[in-house]
Every structure is written in structure tokens, then in C-alpha cells.
Amino acid sequence: xxxxxxxxxxxxxPVGACLEVLEEAxxxxxxxxxxxxxxYDVFSPTNPNEFYEYKTxxxxxxxxxxxxxxxxxSVVKWxxxxxxxxxxxxxxxxxxxxxxxxxxxxTETGEPLAIFPDGYVQKLRVAGASAIAARYLAxxxxxxxxxxxxxxxxxxxxxxxxxxxxxxxxxxxxxxPESRRRFIEEWGPSVPAxxxxxxxxxxxxxxADIVTATTNSISALFxxxxxxxxxxxSCVKPCELDATTYKRAxxxxxxxxxxxxxxxxxxxxxxxxxxxxxxxxHPITREDSAIWDFPTLSQLVNGQHPGRVNEDSISCFCNxxxxxxxxxxxxxxxxxxxxxxxxxxEIPTEWFLESVHP
Length: 358
Known about the structure:
Oligomer: single chain
Helix content: 25-40%
CATH topology of the largest domain: Rossmann fold
Mean pLDDT: 92
Low-confidence stretches: none
Strand content: 25-35%
Number of strands: 16
CATH architecture of the largest domain: 3-Layer(aba) Sandwich
Order of helices and strands: EHHEEEEEEHEHEHEHEEHEEHHEHE
Shape: globular
Structural class: alpha/beta
CATH class of the largest domain: Alpha Beta
CATH superfamily of the largest domain: NAD(P)-binding Rossmann-like Domain
């Protein structure tokens, strides 16, 4: 049983290193050779305006002989910012930290193989999905990207999107000038493109061939009328884009057919939790919508959907729900590299085994 840290994984796995294994996993999923288990979110109130959130998702990737469980045990809160609603996890575990874990299991013996924090892997798997979608949907001659957000997810998206298109300019916007300037200073040198600051969403989107939303907002970031013909747009959560964007998109590709996570509220009215009451109220994510009518990323990768067929159309990848299979895919790469480099701490596997029939 191998114990790894975020720092271990960051040394082993550069941003963008997982695109191929993720694409392999999507292909297997579409062919019925892999499985992803729906995400479950459980909320219970703690302090005023704060909730405990227990989140799980899992997946099985037989070709890599790996199954993965990802879980978050978090305290979250919602707040107003830049005219919209934002959601953040609070660093209160141990006084100033978070709890997010990934466990890997062997599909040959069932035994646990590794456990590690989900933080670094989390941003790689989300950015990887966006980059794979852009590989199939963005125009081949795309040169300019609008990057909305300047945080954890934005950094990985900057690198991975630059790997699938020869970007010449990236225009960054976030509501806090200090944040976007710090982001450009830290991450600008990591890509060939010129990375510049913009003072508003409209300025960032103007002239962009790709628009990438990477925020923690549960409110739409811009009106869909701003999108120009031929642009490719993506999000890390569906509520970053408005109904107009989805209606204008052709093709519109979703991540998976689950309309949204399964959500359970304990001891509180469900409508008091923004993620339930507001965060998913968009046409393709409502419970009463025909979410299964939209093609998935797996179908795109498998060639079951042609992708972009019109250079003037607006293409869209909606990351409507995360997939546990992503953690099996990225986790298999983490484990292989850790074993080769002899990184991590080993503890006896038998500590996690039992002789009593479960």
C-alpha cells in the first residue's frame, strides 16, 4: 500500500501528462469496457451559512487493472462576489487544511494499492477533459483563448489547452486584479502564448477563438450573445454558462449522461442550499430535461459524434458532472510513475485486509 502526497504527485506528473490515459478511459467507457459510478453529495448544516459536504465518486478501468474511489469531506459556504454567487471549501481540517482522498484498488485481487490527496489530481483530470474536448471541437486554426478565472483550475487549463492548439495569445480575466496579475506572473512563462490581463469579461471574449471558464461561480459569467461564430466554449461546471450559450451551441457535448450529482440534504430544506436550489437550474441540467439526448465526451472520442462540422458554428463542452473514472485513469498513471521512481511511503497492505467475510 503506497502513500503519496500532492507534492510527490506534482513531481511525478507534469500538467498535461494525463491526456492520453484520460482519452483512453473515455474510449473504454464509450465501448462498455469501463465504468463510472455517479457522484453523490450529502449536505448537513453546521455553522450559520455553512454546510458539511460529503462527496463521493468512483470508477473502474479494467484495461489498467485499477478501480478508484474519490471522496471529499468538507465544510463549504456560499457568498456573493462580482455580482454572482460563489462556493468555496473552507480550510478547517486540522485548523487550516482540506480533506480530499483518492484510494486505488487492484481489479485482479481487490487489494488496496495506494491512497493520496485529490488536490493536484483533481485539477489535472478536469483540465484534461476540457483539453480533450477542445482537441475535437475547437477550430484547428484557433489562436486566441479567453481564460475566465485565475485560480487552481485556470493554471491547468492554460497548460493543457496550449497543448492541443497552437495558441498565440491568452486573455485572462478574474474579478480581482491582484489575482489575475499574480496568475499571469506565475503561469505566463509556462506556455508559448502571450498571456495578458483584461479588465472585463467582454474584453476577454472579444476576438477569442476559445472561451474557457474555470471559476467557482454558480452564476453565469457572461451573456451568451457575446459569443462570436466559430468560437469553442467550455466550463468546469454548467452554471458558469447561461441558457443562451447552450441554445446557440452546435454541437453541444456533455461530459456524461447523469444530469447532475445525486444530492441529499439532512436536517434542512433543500432549497436553502444554493447548489441544489440555484446552481443547476439551467436547461441541460434540470431534472426534467432530456439530458440523454446530448452526445457525450466518450462518444466524441470514439468517433460516434463527428465533432465540429461547420467552421462558423459555436461548439460547447459542458462539464455537467465529474466522473469517478477520471480518478482511476489518472490514478493508474500516478501509481505507475511512483513505482518506477520509487516515490512515496509504503505501509503494510495487510493492515487493510481482513479474514472475516465482509
